[in-house]
Amino acid sequence: MEKTSKFRLFIKYLVLFFFSFFTLLPLLWMVTTSLEPDKGLESYSLIPKKVVFDNYAEAWNYPRLYDPDVTLGTMFLNSLIVSTLVTLSSLLFDSMAGYALARKNFPGKTVLFWAALSTLMVPFYVIVIPMYLITMKLGLLNTIPGLIIPFMASGFGVFLFRQTFIGIPKELEDAARMDGAGDFYIYWKIMLPLVKPTVATMTIFKVLWSWNMFFWPLLIIQDYSKMPINLGLTMFRGQNITRWGLLTAGMVIAILPIIVLFLILQKWFIRGLTAGAVKG
């Protein structure tokens, strides 16, 4: 019986390894190609014949085509600024709105909640034209704030924080009020630290989404010095040849912050996804 259980466990791990390998195959190819000398030709090898790191240095300082001061490093910094500000502002506004909808009673509360929830049902491409016109009227075209301000709050974040705050016992607030604590103090010092898994989950989602923005920057950004890194990666592809070594090195640079962030916050991620899932 014990041998049968071990055999089944072995088969399970073998199947998991098989599917994991094929899932990670594109990533492995990308890393391998980035470590090989750039020949301008696409390689299909998963084991580099010669390991070099020149592609990373050249990719970081590429392209300098139209502006000698603009490189992939400049665009990396732009993405870092945009992702950081979008994430921090969204965490603040979404958590405050979620707390108010979970704990406060005021006229129109239900309508506001359903209005926030309804934004999850509207595809981005439906609202992109009104967003573009509003951004143009505000004079935010071709600016970094134009990449940040439209996404400083989200219906998904409001919903997730509301569901999490509902699951926290109300007695904690009552005890704090008896000690003279105000609304913002209770929210900032008592409630927010209790929803760390949700904060971690939203941090991963918002950083991942804002870091991977492509269509919106493509619409409103024309200045190379303000482009995020995803637009910068298109510079490696020319009309006649693609610099595969540089392109894959740039791709590794682009995904590295997301991987590091997920590894740091992974222990909170699943807990945050399930927090408040059974609360109404």
Explain the layout of strands and helices.
Elements: H1 2-34, H2 54-60, H3 72-103, H4 109-118, H5 124-137, H6 145-148, H7 155-166, H8 171-178, H9 183-191, H10 196-211, H11 215-220, H12 229-232, H13 244-274
Helix pairs in contact: 1-13, 2-13, 3-7, 3-10, 4-7, 8-9, 10-13
Describe this structure in words.
This protein is mainly alpha-helical and 280 residues long. The chain is globular. The relative contact order is 0.15. The protein has one domain (53-274): MetI-like (MetI-like fold, Orthogonal Bundle), CATH 1.10.3720. The model is unreliable at 276-280 (pLDDT under 50). It contains 13 helices and no strands. The chain has helices at residues 2-34, 54-60, 72-103, 109-118, 124-137, 145-148, 155-166, 171-178, 183-191, 196-211, 215-220, 229-232, 244-274. Helix content is 66%, strand content 0%.
SSE class: mainly alpha
Terminus-to-terminus distance:
45 Å
Number of helices: 13
* CATH topology heading: MetI-like fold
What is the rounded Rg?
Answer: 23 Å
